[in-house]
Amino acid sequence: MRYKWVDERWAKHEQENWNDMLALFIRHDMARDEVRTKAIVQILAGNDTAASAFRGFFLYLMTNHWVCAKLRREVDEAVGGAGASG
């Protein structure tokens, strides 16, 4: 029962055009048990994963000043120069 949603997606993965991690796992020919395990891990690790992604993103910005400057310009343009470069 706990894997019902994985099994439902598995059964119709060829008819649907999903574009998410579960679809990626299935398209890369992982075994059903492995897909089930990875799906549960992704859900349980979601908070830590998001925090890690944000840490990596901000580290990248802090260590690549040209990227940070470009992002600031894009944000300034998007918000009409309202002071994102602060």
Describe the structure.
- By secondary structure, the chain is mainly alpha-helical.
- It folds into 2 domains: 4-44, no CATH class; 47-78, no CATH class.
- The protein is built from 5 helices and no strands.
- Helix 2 runs antiparallel to helix 3 (32-44).
- The radius of gyration is 19 Å and the shape is elongated.
- The model has no long low-confidence stretch (mean pLDDT 78).
List keywords for this structure.
mainly alpha, 2 domains, 70% helix, 5 helices, 86 residues
Please identify the oligomeric state. Answer: single chain
* SS-based class: mainly alpha
**Count of helical regions:** 5
Strand content: under 5%
**What's the total count of β strands?**
0
What is the number of domains? Answer: 2
Q: Average pLDDT across residues?
A: 78
Helix content: 55-70%
Inertia-based shape = elongated
Uncertain runs are: none
Task: List the secondary-structure elements in sequence, H or E.
Answer: HHHHH
Q: Over all CA atoms, what is the radius of gyration?
A: 19 Å
Largest sheet: none
What is the terminal-to-terminal distance? 52 Å
